[in-house]
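tmp note - Prolamin-like domain-containing protein
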Amino acid sequence: MAKFSTQQIALFIVVALVCAFVPVYSVEEVEAKTLWDTCLLKITPKCALDIIDVVFGDGTLSNSCCHDLVEEGKMCHDKLIKYISDRPSLIAKESQYLKKRDDLWTHCVSISKTV
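out:
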């Protein structure tokens, strides 16, 4: 039971980090709920944070997280990164983030094929 609570807390942290990029007045509740219901619950919170760090920072992604990302699906990956990169504070570099998103996807697909 404690592990379940820890996972819930970690998922909350992921969502909070996603929302941190978004001013309160611009959060679209339906879009955020759709991301939560269809995408964020499919991967571990650590992998979600690592993916965000790779695309919006200079992090690295483990092979197991690459596998989780591919299992999550391209639509969820694209939608989540696009949702974050559309924030006013990030929009200036959106094309850079979308390229990193696509490069990460290609890398993870190639890793998943070899495993």
